[in-house]
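This section describes the prediction task in plain terms. A model, or a person checking by hand, is given the sequence of a single protein chain and must write out its three-dimensional structure as a string of tokens. No templates, partner chains or ligands are provided. The sample shown here is typical of the held-out split.
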Amino acid sequence: MASVSACSGSVSIGGPDAVAEPELEQRVATALAEQMNQPVPNIDCPGNLAAEVDASIQCVLSVTGDTTRYPVDVRVTSVNGDDDVRFSAQVGTTPLPTDG
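The expected answer:
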């Protein structure tokens, strides 16, 4: 994914507290794939994302068959009621260091 950038999306959380990690990962991956017209990447987030404007979390993007990983900064842009959280996701241009 040489030309990765930013995207936005929304997620229904079913409650006022946080976007669950699996739902967040799936929504970010889908939004990035649609934005870049690429296959859905693997997204790994370290936990839930608080359903508060400006809450943020750093996730990791990887592509099957490639060991290169990129940081993805996910930030809540708005919260509408108890079940609609909108976010932006910005993929870093510098790969993360490899493990090992």
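For orientation: The longest helix spans residues 21-36.
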